[in-house]
């Protein structure tokens, strides 16, 4: 394999491809929404990666491609550098790979037409049901969010984008033609806006260019199969392009129980006259903690880094339903200091530290120093800064601080060495703080896998009940 190019996709690239493909799924376009999804950050459109690879493709024979296949192995986030490599032409095929820090993210096989040679192309026929009347799709402003059964057996017709983007993607237009390029981009719309739609992950693609009707300005597609075991759709398409694609239905953001549901676990005055600061309280375990404390009569201040809407919704739910006071303030630990919070630290009974970067991350090797450094910054450096700040700021009494460690320290899942190492280092730090600090008492427990955005996967994994794990902890922190 030899290097053929590199590309770091930015917000402007996302906007451009959304204009080309009309795929404006928030996974690609909204960094605040994307933080709650599988990748944890805005994801580059898979078809954009494929078309970029074609732009870098070194086609020494200058032959036209007759088939394209692509596997999207791992998502690529905005801001990550994608490196493209290519093998030497083997027969009539070139294999291109796209990697981030060595991790394979996309594999593209381009089959070319060699003069006088029989073409070896083995693609499954798309099997679009021509007997069904196609359902016309307008230009959707929001992705569909339908159950798999809604799409099964349906045939859709999609009118292509007529705009010319040849100056931005000259090689793709040369090999696919204007309409073929528009149809390829439209496959992103099919997956991201129609089926699976809102909760989608593009898995793979096979295109047979030999029988494509390039004069056709429509793309027809039908959902052939859905495998509920893997939440996997098999979709055939024809028109400007002919082939098939596969796409997963990914889990939506994980909702936490409502205040009303959580009220069943506590008495109305169990946390009365307590005031707690919850760092990272706009979702997940921080959200549950805030609601439980408020349901028990406690006052809470929750911080958020970017999820203002989420924090406001939690605050509104608490203040609407209880006599407790819930306040919100912004605190981004990558930029803000703890003294930026507007509060009297001496009035706090407890502080819960739920701030965290994305936990499950892609990587190529056994150990990624940069990834470890990111975990270290949150779990060790920032937590230590909090405790030092408290030791200097608290003028009387003592404040309890909760630090959530993880069972991954002792029962480490594959690929999570950096996360487990940072949590283990934090546990040692907690022991030292409790020995040396007079005004700070840190409580640290190893939490099992729990139900949050961080732990959501395409395949369902059992998780412990959030409230049943957290409630005994909150009760233990009521009194020093």
Descriptive notes:
The protein is α/β, with parallel strands linked by helices and 480 residues long. It has helices spanning 11-21, 26-29, 31-34, 46-56, 148-151, 170-194, 259-262, 284-295, 308-321, 369-393, 417-436, 466-476; strands spanning 2-8, 65-72, 81-86, 93-100, 103-112, 135-137, 155-159, 200-208, 218-227, 232-239, 242-249, 275-279, 299-304, 326-330, 350-353, 399-406, 440-447. α4 packs antiparallel against α6, α8 (284-295) crosses α12 and α10 (369-393) packs parallel to α11 (417-436). The chain starts with a strand and ends with a helix. The model has no long low-confidence stretch (mean pLDDT 90).
In summary, what is this structure?
With 480 residues, the protein is an alpha/beta fold.
